[in-house]
């Protein structure tokens, strides 16, 4: 995130919220403005809890069926951020938080995040690497495992430090038998007639 965006996020947005709060207090009075802020925080926390538990159920359902919960996790993140924005006093943050709690606008936010992330990957500003665990239990790319292909570093290794090549034939350290089938051994003899 650039310095300009951080300035916008942490200085201009609260300043705009404060300006709107002062303007609203001048129009409708101090106590009605405070009541409005408290009411939106209470309503927002109730909605965030409801939508958050629904998103958690969707994540659990997806994992139970053997799928990977991608959009469901992004929805949960948007709901969490929306809840934080609703607890922050201010009209702009409350409006943004409410928009994140409604499913149609949340879907639009999720698509915008996904396309932004995809373009960041294509531009090279974000690198995605996946790996497993090395032979000694450490993350691949870290001090105990192999490095990432293409010169990327990952895990706990120092950035830019020379890395070992990826582990090709890693030793299985822990395993679980999910289902065991026994089959009779085949005999090379032909059946007797």
UniProtKB/TrEMBL annotation:
Signal peptide: none
Cellular component terms (Gene Ontology): membrane
Stretches the record annotates as Disordered: 151-170
Keywords: Membrane, Transmembrane, Transmembrane helix
Transmembrane segments: 6-23, 77-102
Name of the molecule in the record: Membrane protein FxsA
Lineage: Bacteria, Pseudomonadati, Rhodothermota, Rhodothermia, Rhodothermales
